[in-house]
Amino acid sequence: MGGFIGKRLLAVIPIFFFATLLAFLLIQLSPVDPAEAYLTAAHIHPTEELLEQKRHEFGLDQPLFVQYAQTIMKMCRLDFGTSYISNEPVWQEIALRMPATLQLAFSSIALAVIVSIPIGFLAAVYKNSVFDHLSRVLAYVGASIPQFWLGYLLIYFFSVKLDLLPVQGRGSWAHLVLPSLTLALGLIAIYSRLLRASVLEQLQEPYVLYARTRGIKEKIILVKHVLKIAISPMLTGLGMNLGKLLAGTIITEEVFSWPGFGRYFIEAIFNRDIPVIQAYVLISACLFIVCNLIIDLLQMYLDPRISWKGRSSH
Question: Which fold has domain 100-269?
């Protein structure tokens, strides 16, 4: 087990450098000149002399590998530069907005997991029943409705018509209900179908037959053995979605005026705030890497055969 964890941790290093290099090159290939964007945001006419001065100040006149090395060193110190718009350190701006995104991400993930596990599990146990057909309809509806449209529908019914929940902003728990539900419905559709398919697959495995012949209760077989292994594909999807949510639920935050990381990124794009855009890309890549690493280790804990499969392949 220790060897498997060590290999996974070592594999993160090249992935991290590749992600940061890709993000750096995308910024370099952008047609927007950072020096010109800075002067424009400061309402200063970008003359050639000023442009050259700012390029030298930002280190843009140095070779690309030097700029990349400096970017990595600064990022390790959580130094992402200064925002062109607010003239505040980007990391401080992100730190102010990240709690809102964390709150929204974990609440929607928790809601999706709490609802999708019983739906997917019961749909598999009672295959082709009325409940199974209803769960299939729910999955189709949840997967097909666009997120922004669902958000506006929820606002219309629960805020405008029924006047039960607030429309926008962040405050009490009531402000969290609609955006969390908007994000969770699509995840419930995916997770419930993944879990259903995985449970049905596990029910065909020999260990289930052996457990039944030994007289073990069906409830124990289903919950303690089948569900524990069948939840693995759902965890894989959870790792990808959690990284996405932590990186900022851009559409939902914009619809509900949620003051999170994703909305900050959208504002940076419109304002051509290059340091914020670069910080967003790099932090998003790191979040995806960390979330998937955690999910891999959690899957190995739930199903120790994963580490043995990795050994046997070598």
Answer: MetI-like fold (1.10.3720)
